[in-house]
Every structure is written in C-alpha cells, then in structure tokens.
Amino acid sequence: MDLTAVIIVEILYTIASLIIISSGLAVIFGMMKVINFAHGEFMMIGGYATIIAVKSGINIYVSILIIAPLVVGIIGVIIERLIIRHLYGRLVDTMLATWGISIVLIGLATMIFGNTTEGITTPISGWQIGDYRINGYNFFIIMIAILIVSLGYYLLKFTKLGLIARGAMQDPNVASSLGYNPDRIYMTTFFIGSAFSGMAGGILAPLVGLTPNWGTAYIAKAFITVVVGGPSIITGLLSSSTLFGSVNQIFSFITTPVWGEVALLVTAIILLRLLPKGITNSIFRGKL
Amino acid sequence: MQMNRRKLLKGATALVAASFISKPTFASGDTIKLGSLLDTSGIFDAYGKPMDKTARLAVEQINASGGLLGKQIEYILYDTQSNMALYTQFGKKLARTDNVDVMHGGILSASREAVRQTFRKRNIPYFYNVLYEGGVCDRNIFINGITPAQQVKTLVPAAVKKFGKKIYVLAADYNYGQITANWIKKYAEEVGAEIVQTDFFPLDVADFGSTIAKIQTAKPDMILSVLVGGAHISFYRQWAASGMNQKIPMASTTLGVGNEQNILAKEETEGVLVAYNYSQELPNALNQKLLADYKAKYGSIDDLHSTAVSHYEGILTWAKAVRQADSVKGADITVVLEAGLSIDTPSGQMTVDAKTHHSILDVHLCEFRNKKMEILESFPQQQPLDTQAVCDLIKNPNDNQQYEIKI
Q: What's the complex ipTM?
C-alpha cells in the first residue's frame, strides 16, 4: 500500500519533470519551428543562475522562479536578435546555428565556472509515507508542472496575447497585415520559451550536480517529448509526458533505471512509427 | 607563384618565427627530463590539474635540494585535453622527439593503455600514479595507485562490522564499477555478509527517485556506493533530500576521490565510511609539510586530492630510485626498485612489490565528519592481492598485458 503510494508519487514526479524540461522547447520548437539545440544549455545557465543567486543569499524560490527565468530569457532574446531572427522558416539552419550556440555556451560556462561540479541542497526535507521516505522536493516539482500547464493553457486560450501569438506563428503575413508586428511577437515568444528553459534548469539544480555540459543529458528527452506530443502544444506536452513518465518509472521499478530509459526510447520509436506527426495529430486533434 | 616584396617579407617572418618555435629539443645532456601527459583541461581536469600542481611542486623541491645526480630536472608536460587520441600523439612526441628519461602521467586506464607500449619500446620507465582496477603486468611500468583489493578488503569488513550484514550496492556501469562490485561481493561473503542487490547506473543517470524507493523496499543495513562522476553526485543529494541519510548508513569506494565533499553539503556526506591511501587529515610530519608547501605555492589546499598526492609520491619514489642507482637508465632504476625500494611519503610507507611493480601501501579507513575525512583506523602495508594473483614479473619478466582478474 505504502509502496503503491510511493510509486504513484514517483510516476507523477517523472511526468512533471518531463513537462518542466520540455515546456521551453515546446514553445520554441513546437510553436516557432526553431530546432533549439541549445535548449539544454539554456537549462544549464538557469541552473548556474539559481546556484549563484542562492549562494549570494537570495531566497531559493525567488532564485528558481524569478531570477533563473529572467536571466535565461534575456540571454535568449539577445541570441534571438543576433542570430535566430535571421533564420526563421529555415529549419535545418536553425539546427546548425543553435548547435553552434550550444557549444559556445558550454565553452563560456567552462571558462567562467570551471569544469567542476556545482550544487545547492534541496530546500524541502523528506516526507514520510508509511514506512517510506520520499524526497519532499518532488511535490514542489509536481506543483510547478501543474502551474506551467494551466498558465500556458490560460495564456494561449483566453488572452489576446495568446491569440495574437498563435496567429502570428500560423501566418506572419496575415498578422502583419492586421497591424501586428510579427518580429516583436517572435521575440516575445522566444523570450517566454527561453525563460521556461531557464526555470527548468533552476528547478532541477538542487537535485543534481551541475557541470557546464549538464544540459546535454536532457536535450534528447525534451525533443522526444515535444516531437511525440505533436502539433498541439499543451495537450501534446501533457499526453506525451504522461505516457513516457509512466513507462519510464514502471520499468525502473520492475527492473533498473537503465531499462526504464530503454523502455522510454522504445516507446518513442514505436509511437513515431505509428503516429509520425505526433499524438495530437491523430488523437486529440485540434486541441490546444 | 608570383613573388613580391610583401609576400617575401611574410614568408621570411614565418620562417624566422618557425625557427624560434621548434627549437631543437634533442639531448642537451645537462638536465634530466621528466615527461608527463595529463588532462589539464576538459572533463577530467578536476583530476589532472591538481596532479600537474603536485608534479611541479615535487620537481621544484628536488631541484631546490640540488637536483638528481648533480643535474636539474626539466618538467615537460603536454595537456592531453581529456582526449584519448592526444595521448598517443603526445606520447610518441615525448618518447621520440623530447627523448625524456622518465614518464609520469596518464589518468584514465584507457589513456595509460594508449601510451604504455610506446614507452616500453623505448625503454623509458613509466610511472602510473592513479588508483585503478588492477591487473597491469609489465616490467617497464610502476604503479603506486590503490587497487580494488587493497581498498575493498579494508572497507567492506569494517563497514559490515559497523553497520550490519545486508548490503545494497550502487555502482557505475563501466569496467571500474563492475570489477569493484565483484570484489565487494567476494569480501562481503568472506565476513558472512550478504549483497541483497547490486544496481548499475550509466554515467549520465541523474535521477535516483525509483532507486531510493527500491532501497527502502529491500531494507538493507547499509548501502555501498561505487558511483562515479558529476551526474552521480545527484544520488547523495537526493538520498539526503529524502531523509534516508538519517536511516540507512552508507559506505563508498569513490566519494572523495574528486573532492566531492567540497561540492556537497555537510549533511549529505556526514558519516559516510570510506577507505583510501590518503586523507588530508593524516597527522604525520611529511603530510603536514606537503599541505603547507602546497598552500604556500597555490594558496589553497581545497583541490588537493588523493590522486594528486599519489602522483607526487610517484615522482619522489622515482627520484629516490635514481639516487640509489646513480643512474636514470630504465634498466638501472628497475633493479633498485625491484629490490623492494621503500619510501616514507605523506600517505605512509610505500614499498615496491617486485612481483607486480605495484605498491604495498597503507590504507586508511575514514569517516566524513564536517566535510573532512577523519581517520578511524590505518591498515599498514596492504598487498596488491588482485594483481599478485595473476602477475609474476620475477617468473615472467617479459609479460606485457593487462589481466582481467577472475574472482
């Protein structure tokens, strides 16, 4: 009984962390069709921003939820203005450019912080569930994931900003003929996407040892989640995260974490074979 | 090609510059050349940089005391940038172009194997001063790093005595982790303990939530961590975050090798039991002097780890052999070393084992207290039993391979 509760919490936690690490990419790749290979490095910078902020005495939640997104969002906008904006609509070129950016960012982080592991401790202590103790921070991550999904849904569905953004992504010419500046809208969207990536890094920072190339461990998972999710951003993110998170954790419990990862990748391959355009292209069609 | 004044000037400058850069390096004869290959940049630089620092310190100290055989030591280091291909390239350069008298260096086992034959062919003695999985059998190489048998033989019985008989092993999924896990099993069974489960993790696994729940289901008396590298540090953090560090004690064969305790919080390492050849807390005078000298030269002793110290000790061992042999030739110093050369070092006495060219050394059982490795007990002069089981250079002086040791 207690073990079932623990397993359910772990599954929810894995789903939540997939949502968190993929949300920034879902915006940048899912909405803007920019293959952002530097997504992992955006997370890495968010992680470092959080660690530095915490070490200089700022409250850890402020660091994670405000400072990390803000720092990475600003860096994202600078990169967008200098490089990405010249490449909209050129899918392969964005991939090459962002790959280069990712290498540069890893190099810069290595120069600034050195090639060593950095870290801070988790702010929430362990929770007792029957005979078991679990990481209390898991609940924080689950809460944030719920918050991200509901906030995203609300923004896109019910606000004028969301409507304009979706319109501009669909057809920038029409949006511009209606008096909106697609350039400005793209910049704002890229800012929001980068900020989400930065927050993801900040949230994970207390759980891991941070190194300059830490982000590369997450990039594949984030892309798989977004690609398998398909064209609908929120529904796609939610459905693919739920599927992969459950598969990964159930296999991890039955066997080892290695087989959990294998099961996740096998599921992804089968799904892409059956639904090459993603879950939300066939099921949940037309949802947001 | 058309030649004009500008091009001519450019060419001439390049020629002059080139003659400065590649100044002839062949035998000057008035120095002894100590060649080294270390990763002082890239992902292994946490190991390599302090090794380079202690090597420079050792060379400086030997030179200050008059050098060896009346000559100064010249330290020639190439940064292999954590890239195995560069070991082969720079190894050849050291052996053929620089004509070094001795080689100290290499960090990963892969890097050692990449250059071992190059130095053997040129009869340049090679000192590999890093802890590793054991089994190298080659008369040209001398190894003073601690091997799994020396470490695990000390750690496991002590941990069983202290914590209990049910052990849950978490190990990194590559040869070091696999081999060490086998040794843990062997020594656990010898003292009547039981391995309830062994889980292997690839080096990039950073999420241990399900593992922590599984450990609680298995209810072991202790966990034994053979985890390696930056991603695996997450385990200690998540273990403490779940509060389990208060409930199930931990021993480790790896925590502290890269000075992980400086990154982790105090409560995340508190009470973890480890066994190494060296701890900064060793009270002997040589260690106090090393710490003082290192601090005077580099400002801080935070990055000084056991591997850097054994690198320092490898150089001192070689220097002692050169003095006794009154020669730098490989054949001459090998005779002296094989006679069982013994030297007092910061980590205790080190004696060369003639049979394996490994080191008979002191192993210190330590516990992390307030981020420091406090010594609980020292086990003097532990034999490299693993390599001794397969390698006998007295009987087979021409042996030249790394054995996989069957347990």
A: 0.80
